[in-house]
Write a structure and sequence with these properties.
This protein is α+β, with helices and mostly antiparallel strands. The chain is built from 12 helices and 14 strands. The strands form 4 sheets. Strands 7, 8, 9, 10, 11 and 12 form a 6-stranded antiparallel β-sheet that branches. Strands 2-5-1-6 form a 4-stranded antiparallel β-sheet. A two-stranded antiparallel sheet has the order 3-4. Helix 1 packs antiparallel against helix 3. The C terminus is likely disordered. The structure holds protoporphyrin IX containing FE. Protoporphyrin IX containing FE binds next to strand 7, helix 7, strand 10 and helix 8.
Length: 376
């Protein structure tokens, strides 16, 4: 049975480095595969952080068409009512490094950035945090109704046997809060915006909860009246003059989350919007597919696989042939010394497609076809 990326379900880490990237024009499929392979390999030397990879719908479908759910599609943006809208930025790659030690998380993120730099342009580089009580900087606890982990797997992962099984569709949107305007509301006014109490996140009774509250707009039901959940992994960010939330929603069916968005932005037909949009504004929006570990490995090779070339790290030279003679199961990343970034940047890995078992990915790309792409 395929396994999901574990970093998606490792909740309550405090430090979050998100990178959003687009492919440089003319990038060949083999170059993307080699760069991501190297980024995964190089970052596996850093001890401990969770690393999650997501790919824009077009890119993932180009690389692994048989592992892409049919409903995975680019975010087109929403022109809502009452002046609210959700812009589309639709980027190609999302890499999320998270953990609890700043230096370790940063180093993994930077190592990945270096490995991708030749083929990708960095569009957004966002450092986020998670408060101990999961309180968003807008002042409310975020996550109270989030499914528990066992249910989270059920609501977010593509079922076994379907294309992309154990992967998840992830919608990511950067929101900027207008804190002065929200803070100017009375406590009751703020609670009406969310439909929950501020101190302890108790949901309002249905007869007093405004239909325009965030909770009311985001509780959606199926034909039998059962609630359709998503799994949220929001991470806030805050500097002295810019405060907001990186909304991260995982779902096995994109329709669930698209329905929530249409109810928030007033395109669902009932003439209502989510009043959170009066105080917070989305400035980016992209769908990504975060494949299973099995599909990541199929596309980019195993992160603990021995490369074909000699590795030099921290002044230590490791010859893979000798390592193989010592024991084929040797785990290089775990055994290699942790080197400073300057030394780690010297790591050499093979970029030969044949050595990475990715030959089947070549020449199948529609998205990655450009005038320079003589392999596609
Ligand atoms: C500025 C951005 C956002 C903030 C600060 C925010 C914050 C919150 C808070 C405080 C709650 C109530 C507590 C909880 O159950 O977690 C909540 C609930 C929820 N939010 Fe958001 N949210 C944001 C954007 C979104 C977006 C874009 C969606 C979906 C497209 C969404 C979907 C949901 C859902 C499904 C719930 C649970 C509703 C329920 O079952 O009671 N949120 N959010």
């Amino acid at each position: 049975m395929p396994q999901p990326q574990p970093g998606l379900f490792t909740v309550h880490t405090h430090l979050h480095f998100h990178q959003f990237l687009t492919l440089k024009p003319g990038t060949k499929p083999s170059e993307v595969v080699a760069a991501v392979t190297r980024a995964r390999m190089d970052s596996s030397w850093i001890g401990g952080p969770n690393i999650v990879w997501g790919f824009g719908p077009d890119l993932w479908r180009s690389l692994m068409p048989e592992s892409t759910p049919a409903d995975v599609a680019n975010f087109e943006g929403i022109h809502g009512i009452d002046g609210v809208s959700a812009p589309a930025t639709q980027w190609d790659i999302w890499v999320w490094c998270h953990g609890s030690e700043y230096d370790v998380v940063w180093e993994a993120a930077r190592y990945i950035h270096i490995a991708l730099a030749d083929v990708c342009d960095l569009q957004e580089d966002l450092q986020c945090y998670k408060a101990a009580d999961s309180r968003d900087p807008i002042g409310f606890i975020d996550g109270s109704e989030n499914p528990a982990l066992d249910e989270a797997l059920e609501v977010s992962l593509v079922p076994d046997g379907e294309p992309g099984a154990a992967g998840t569709s992830v919608f990511i949107q950067k929101w900027i809060h207008n804190l002065p305007a929200f803070d100017a509301l009375s406590l009751e006014g703020q609670e009406d915006v969310f439909g929950r109490s501020k101190a302890d996140s108790i949901e309002m009774e249905d007869d007093v909860k405004p239909a325009t509250s965030h909770v009311a707009r985001n509780v959606i039901l199926d034909a039998e009246g059962n609630e359709r959940h998503i799994f949220r992994l929001n991470t806030p960010f805050a500097s002295v003059d810019e405060v907001g939330t990186l909304f991260i929603g995982c779902t096995r069916e994109t329709d669930r989350l698209n329905t929530m968005l249409s109810r928030m932005f007033g395109t669902s037909g009932d003439g209502l919007t989510d009043h959170l949009t009066k105080f917070s504004t989305p400035v980016t929006g992209s769908w990504f597919f975060a494949p299973s570990m099995n599909d990541l490995t199929a596309a980019f090779g195993g992160i603990n696989a021995l490369p074909d070339e000699i590795i030099v790290s921290g002044g230590v030279e490791i010859n893979p042939d000798e390592a193989k003679e010592l024991g084929a199961d040797i785990n290089l990343p775990a055994q290699a010394p942790t080197a400073p970034v300057s030394a780690q940047a010297e790591v050499q890995t093979s970029s030969s497609p044949g050595s990475l078992n990715i030959g089947s990915l070549m020449g199948e790309s529609s998205y990655l076809t450009t005038e320079n792409d003589d392999e596609a």
